[in-house]
Amino acid sequence: MSIPLLGYKPSSQNVRVSGYDIGGDDQPKIYSAENLLSLTEMNDLIEAAYRQIFFHAFRSDRERFLESQLRNGQITVRDFIRGLLLSETFKNSFYEKNSNYRFVEQCVQRVLGRDVYNEREKIAWSIKVATKGIEGFIDELLDSEEYMDSFGYDTVPYQRRRVLASRDQGERPFNITSPRYGEYYRAILGFPQIIWQSEVRRYTPQESKPKAGSPSLYLNMARSLPNRANTPSSTSATNIIDYMNKVPYRK
pTM surpassing 0.70? Predict the structure, then answer.
């Protein structure tokens, strides 16, 4: 007997608020297989699915068999998304390199097109991962009422309502806010780290270097000399009593 999904209260996010959005360059482009007529449009849809699930797919990461089935109409876009989520690339890059909580967060962002509501939702879906495995968890996400109402069988998932008309800037994309590897695994894998140098080194060509006798060679020496400028006198004219005797005269 499977454990039912733990109840959680959805929070008020942009995806739950209905509104009228004006089309623009920042608005996500919706890829759907309902009205695809050309080969180019199908290629664009497949690339959009790879970007949504993998963010970037190398040649070795592509699922050629699933692509062929989708092009021939043997599977739906929803089935293609399911195949990408259950592929070895997704398991190696997301499931094995993250905890169950973070894996749930990654999948909710990529499949449902929104961020997790709260920690209780993470726990609820993590129980599904622990009891039903990855396949059972992915199936419940794709069979959920939220996914079917938002994307259905023929639409590639996308980040819903990332840009609002009342804002100057939209929310950051999920691939930036939630990178593929967590901080713990980035340290284990030895990801490049930023090292700041106290000295900036520049390369100067031989023909640009100063020659003997050039004034620029003495610049550092001049800067190293102490400041010997005479300080102004603090004596005021009002403090001099016999100022006439202090005026120098030629004799």
Answer: no
